[in-house]
Automatic annotation (TrEMBL):
Organism of provenance: Cohnella abietis
The organism's taxonomic lineage, starting at the top: Bacteria, Bacillati, Bacillota, Bacilli, Bacillales
Superkingdom field: Bacteria
Keyword Hydrolase: no
Protein's name in the database: Putative N-acetyltransferase YobR
Gene3D superfamilies on file: 3.40.630.30
UniProt GO molecular function: acyltransferase activity, transferring groups other than amino-acyl groups
Amino acid sequence: MDNKFIEELSLNNWQPLSTLLYDGWVLRFANGYTKRANSINSIHYSTYDLNLKIKQCEKIYSNNNLPTTYKITPFVHPENLDEILEENGYSLIDSTSVQTLELENINEPKLKSIQIVENSNAEWLDNFFRLNNVEANSKDTMERILSNIKTKKGFISLYYEGQVVACGLGIIEREYIGLYDIVTDINYRNKGFGEQIILNLLHWGKVNGAKHSYLAVVLNNKPALRLYSKIGYSEIYKYWYRVKKS
């Protein structure tokens, strides 16, 4: 499968609150909650003067009280956009590995104390906010982002001794399940719960037609990289963000 296809899925399945199409670039806005939903994706060819276009994008994001942020993938247009942004004072942050997995031979989960619902509810949201330390002023934005996702969703919670110790989200589109925001309670990490919640979510994906999986993990998150490697994920490409220095 073309790697650009995976990038397309990732754009579809983490929706911003609003989008502006600007000469082949997709500008995304979501009140600053996550860079994925508040960045510029230069996925189509440009026709305007590039320097003027960059300045105009900076003005648009500034008017929305957001830092100007570009997501830099192997598919950007023009191909030297990363170098141009660096020359214009943009810092490189959050280098990220995009990884995929075939689901045919994944291991069976050992823990089955899970709940998966296809629409987020108050309990899942409360646990997600708690485990991710989501600030109060971002909760409404997060809920709206989730409601904007139009493909099949699985909101998973893993219980241990009567309480939720891990949760996350799987989104299925075109036989791929994408994993988003898998998080384990800080007091229950390194106990295998992360692996178990992922295996349960992948099996739910298989039952619902998924044959493959993808995810994105920040390269400085060494424990997550080890976990995904153990499950069988492997990297297909990297991306990072360029953010305008203040």
